[in-house]
Amino acid sequence: MNLKTNIEMLKRLTARPVPASGRWPWPLALFYWLAGARKATLDQLPESERERIAVLGSSVLVPTLLAFFGMYLYAASRFQSSRPIVSLLVALVWAFIVMNVDRILMATYRPFQPWRRKLIQVCFRVGLAAVISVAIAFPFCLEQYQGAIKERLQGEYRTRLNDLQSKEREERELIESRDAGLLTNLQAQLKQEQAAGPVDANLYAEELAKQTVRQQDDNARSRKQGLDQEAAAALAEWKQASARIREVEQDLKNEARGRLGSDRGGTGKPGQGAKFKELERDLQLLTKAEQVARQRYEQLLGRAAAALPAEPPKDLLSALDADKRASFVTAAEERKARIDKMNQAIAKAESEQAERMASHKLRFDPVLKSYYAKAEGSFDPMEETIGLFKVIFVPEADGEGVEPIVQRYKWMAALFQFSIVFGVLFLLDLIAILSKVMSRPGPYDVLVEFPELVAGQNLAALKEEYPRYAASWAKATPRQGPAPAVQDGVDLRNSEEIAELLLRAHLPGGNGSQGDAGAAGPQRRDA
């Protein structure tokens, strides 16, 4: 067989034809593109085969659209707030990924390849379809049970919220009551100290001096008042003695004349008798008593006048003696130190109380805020998933309103809904690969398979023959000098001759004029 003729024939068979003039309608072009088919290859096919390829390409649209709408619904249900633009972008990206996966599988699936390769491609697509179907079917079930999930979770969170509020209130009251006693005591002591006078030590020392002078004035006024009262009593005694003297003198005159009445003890004897002598003696005693009373009255008046307080000086503290002034300053400084210490203790107690209250709020406020939101029905996807599990498998705490047999078989109803949605989505998602697997091999598959078959056979021949040629070339190559031009009739620098050598390895009758080395390849191949 002429080797040159065989090579030219293969070139003609494997060469791509010149594209035909004209364009396909855009739907057909889209279907062909989705099927992974090239226009040059499709131009060599009959109408029926091109129609089959278009149908296969259109099957890719089903999982693509399903992926878009399913991912949009899934993304929209996962966000707690409405984000349509983000959901749309996520759905577009996911639909593009699924479309390209199906397009890759459509373009790379070969009906004539080993069943292991087919199984790998099909299993990969089945796994992807299962993941996509679960990702869409599960949110659908969540939406179906949304009312029961919210009712169950809201009831639980309301109970937790009430318990947490009671606990928070008890701990807050304990903190307030524990610190209130200490603060009240310190504030009472501080108020008592501050009520005594100014806080400043110098001002308080002046206040102490004023109090001392005021006390002295009060004492002096009290003494003067007492002396005035005594002087009034002495004056009354003096007046009484004077009146008695005048009365006795009148009786004495009457007795001396013998005119004193018998009712007053008169004897009727002028200047004689015991009554006259008695009156003289009484007059002497009364005169002495009057003098004593008058002297006492005058003394008391003098003492009362001396007891009047003097006008206080402007600087009372400086007017005091050094010892008393030092004692007042020391007392004022000690009082100032006590007030400062109590202020520090109050500030420390208030700071500690504020820290405990802040720690208390930091501990409870976030949890209370979260529980308030949960009690109002704001749940994240994980909580909704847990709520679905509780609704299906976990009985309610009170156990009212649900019969045991209904609770026992809730999972069957949920599984039925999930299975229906999952099964429909799963089968629709496999339409593209199933249509490719179940369709018969056609002329398109033969045209696509032939160049790959030639390339595979060439690679196998190269792997088989290259080690022997490489060893012979290595022995014939000198250590120095120019590279060898020809080895066994093959020019190593000529790509055409190398290609002929590779083709000769698997073409029948390859015994042309290339020598024994070239004929060895097909002989061993036939063997």
Q: Tell me about the biggest sheet?
A: 2 strands, antiparallel
Strand content: under 5%
Give the mean pLDDT. 75
What is the overall silhouette? rod-shaped
DSSP summary: helix tally: 19
Order of helices and strands: HHHHHHHHHHHHHHHHHEEHH
What's the layout of helices and strands?
Elements: H1 3-14, H2 26-34, H3 39-42, H4 47-59, H5 61-78, H6 84-108, H7 115-144, H8 146-195, H9 201-257, H10 274-306, H11 316-319, H12 322-375, H13 381-393, H14 404-408, H15 410-429, H16 431-438, H17 443-476, E1 486-487, E2 490-491, H18 495-504, H19 516-526
Antiparallel strand pairs: 1-2
Structural account:
It is a single chain. The chain is mainly α. Helix content is 78%, strand content 1%. The protein contains 19 helices and two strands. Strands 1-2 form a two-stranded antiparallel ribbon. Helix 2 (26-34) packs across helix 4.
What key attributes describe this structure?
disordered N terminus; 527 residues; rod-shaped; 2 strands; 78% helix; 19 helices; mainly alpha; disordered C terminus; two-stranded antiparallel sheet
Give a summary of the structure in a few sentences.
By secondary structure, this protein is an all-alpha fold. It has helices spanning 3-14, 26-34, 39-42, 47-59, 61-78, 84-108, 115-144, 146-195, 201-257, 274-306, 316-319, 322-375, 381-393, 404-408, 410-429, 431-438, 443-476, 495-504, 516-526, and strands at residues 486-487, 490-491.
